[in-house]
């Protein structure tokens, strides 16, 4: 699911109190997401063209959900985002979202404290002059609306407005939706607006939606779907011969969207799960529905397995019924067999409904019953979707798209994500998606860290690497940070970072997949497990079956201010000063948990449980790193 990076803000939860005279509160927070200027999702900048005129009917359900509204229907889309994630229970998979930011993720007016015009969506010119006078009372514009969704609720002084363009080129407001709790709905609400006045029946008629709210950021969210303008309509005829997907399927691999082939092969039986998806019957009558789910190789379309084939939805969906469907378990044996000959591959799980949906009916001949259709309005467009499952060198619980950015804003604060290696593997790097957020954190120093345990006193560190925040210009891209010393891991461990600024440093948060209980953070008062928000951090462990990497180029002698002795050692190694972190690995690259004694000087590590031989010891002291060879003689 591609999507335009937008800004969405709101406090996830209060985490802990920061010690200090001011009693400030430290938070794990959400921050605005910006997307790169000039990306393919940027506003097209298209100008109105008086000759660019279409005829009725007008229909858009935003089922392309590819960032920008379709140029087939819209001539100006000032900053509206078409997406498949922010609406709750929409009629179809894909909505148009309005907020307070322009197409570059920047506030419309960053210095204004007042409500003003923000996002807008303007139709192409529609020739209404051809509508006979006796049918003009049957011309209606309908649409489904929702405030908030997964965003933030607009305030009561905010509004979403619908305006019509008159013959005299004057925009006339015909409908206003106010913000606030009064209009908060769990589902979308359908609205019918008649076009009655003669001033609108001209060749260049247009309509537009415009949000009026705070212009300083992403503080108000409005969502539209299933916009339809035609004649021969009435508010009582408010259903459609259309069965549509309204929520994308989830990963059938127990919520995992990417996994190294070796780990999948060793634990495939444990990963065989089901997927679920949501559809909506927009008709007033019972309508039969079948569906197909299949796994195919993404680049060639080669069929790997059929999860469900011509599966009948039972019982038959009622009129206007929304239903969540659970698939059959995925055939992991078929995937295992395919992966034997492929080291790295992307598989698609394709879902498509068999509904009998057709084009919008234009006319049924009363004598012959012959039916003609509007072939530019295809109700089958919203019957198909797909998700990707990647078998490569990393593990991911996110689907690769960020709806938010999540992080902390305290120097030396730490953020961690729980990982489970399904078989023993070698952790070589961490992938992180840093979305564009304000204030931008380009170049800020970070320690990327792998922990074996998250204890509040001397947590067991596996690896630590000093890096800096880096942004990719492409949307939803990851930066790979490699550890200088690979770490052999198995079972549960944690990956994350420690920051060195009070400015916000956030990473992508996928709100569609809930692994929120894997998120931990520490802002000075110990580790806290997230228990108040849903989502998956867009941080991924990277694995590679490689021999131990040499540490050529690193210091092979201890830092002068910190004495380390004895070497060779019988197993107890002393430090004259307390290092920030200590790591140890043998010559094969296998890392061993090590804990620094929390007593008075001299601090020490106990390696008596390790066999004699050559080891590499790496430690951090006063923001410097040193690696040296240690010989154990016990």
Report on this model:
The protein is mainly β and about 625 residues long. The protein is built from two helices and 42 strands. The strands form ten sheets. Strands 27, 28, 29, 30, 32, 33 and 35 form a seven-stranded antiparallel beta sheet that branches. Strands 4, 6, 7, 10, 13 and 15 form a six-stranded antiparallel beta sheet that branches. A hairpin with a 5-residue loop joins strand 11 (about 160-165) and strand 12 (about 170-180). Helix 1 (about 260-270) runs antiparallel to helix 2 (about 330-340). The longest helix is centred in the middle third of the chain and has 11 residues, at about 260-270. The chain is elongated and about 100 Å long. Residues about 1-25, about 35-50 and about 545-555 have low confidence and may be disordered. It holds the Pfam family Por_Secre_tail. InterPro entries: Secre_tail (IPR026444). This is T9SS type A sorting domain-containing protein.
Strand content: 35-45%
How far is the first residue's CA from the last residue's CA? 56 Å
Uncertain runs: 1-26, 35-50, 546-556
Main sheet overview: 7 strands, antiparallel
Average predicted confidence as pLDDT: 84
| Coarse morphology | elongated
Oligomer: single chain
Class derived from helix and strand content: mainly beta
